[in-house]
Design goal:
With 143 residues, the chain is mainly beta. It has 2 helices and 11 strands; from the N terminus they run H-E-E-E-E-E-E-E-E-E-E-H-E. It has helices spanning 4-8, 114-117; strands at 9-14, 25-30, 34-39, 52-56, 58-60, 63-64, 80-81, 86-92, 97-101, 106-111, 129-133. The strands form 3 sheets. The protein has a 6-stranded antiparallel beta sheet. A hairpin with a 3-residue loop joins strand 2 (25-30) and strand 3. The protein is globular and about 40 Å long. The protein starts with a helix and ends in a 10-residue tail after the last strand. 27% of the residues are buried. Mean pLDDT is 83; it is low at 135-141.
C-alpha cells in the first residue's frame, strides 16, 4: 500500500501482541474509521527470508472469518472483534504458525481472499483484512 497508505491512512503500531516479542502489527486507519490490519516490518514473517506458505481464516470449528457476510450501510451481519480476537493463522516455510490478531475493537467488514491463493503477497505489504472501527465514547480514535 505504498503511496496511498501514507497519504490517506494514519499508521498505528501494536507491538508484542499477547506478550510475544516482535509479533508486531500495523493498523492503517482511514479518516472514515475503516482500519486495515497489516504485518509490521518487524514481524517474524517478514524477517530472515521466511516464506509464507498458507493462510487459514478458520479460527475454530464454529468460526471462520470467510463466513462473514456484511450488508447495508450499517454493516449488518458483520462479526464483532475485540482487540485480541484472532483473525487468521499464517504458516511459514520453516513450519512456524503465527496467529494474526485484530488489535482493535470493531466489526469485520472484509477479508483479503487474494492471500488464500497467493500468500506471498502478504510479504509485499498487502492487507489481511478491513475493520470498521468503533469510536469510544470519549471521542478518541487512538488505538
Amino acid at each position: 500500500m505504498a503511496g496511498g497508505a501514507e497519504r490517506y491512512f494514519t499508521r498505528w503500531y501494536k507491538p508484542d501482541v499477547k506478550g510475544r516479542p516482535c509479533e508486531d502489527f500495523c493498523v492503517l486507519q482511514h479518516s472514515n474509521r475503516i482500519c486495515v490490519i497489516t504485518l509490521a516490518e518487524a514481524h517474524p514473517l517478514l524477517q530472515n527470508g521466511k516464506t509464507i506458505t498458507s493462510v487459514n481464516y478458520q479460527i475454530s470449528a464454529n468460526c471462520s472469518r470467510l463466513q462473514n457476510k456484511v450488508s447495508g450501510k450499517s454493516k449488518r451481519g458483520a462479526q464483532f472483534l475485540t482487540e485480541l480476537a484472532p483473525l487468521c493463522r499464517i504458516s511459514s516455510s520453516d513450519g512456524e504458525e503465527y496467529t494474526i490478531y485484530s488489535c482493535i475493537r470493531g466489526r469485520l467488514i472484509e477479508v483479503n481472499e487474494n492471500i488464500l491463493n497467493n500468500p506471498a503477497i502478504l510479504q509485499e505489504k498487502s492487507c489481511v483484512l478491513a475493520i470498521n472501527r468503533r469510536i469510544h465514547r470519549s471521542g478518541s480514535t487512538q488505538i
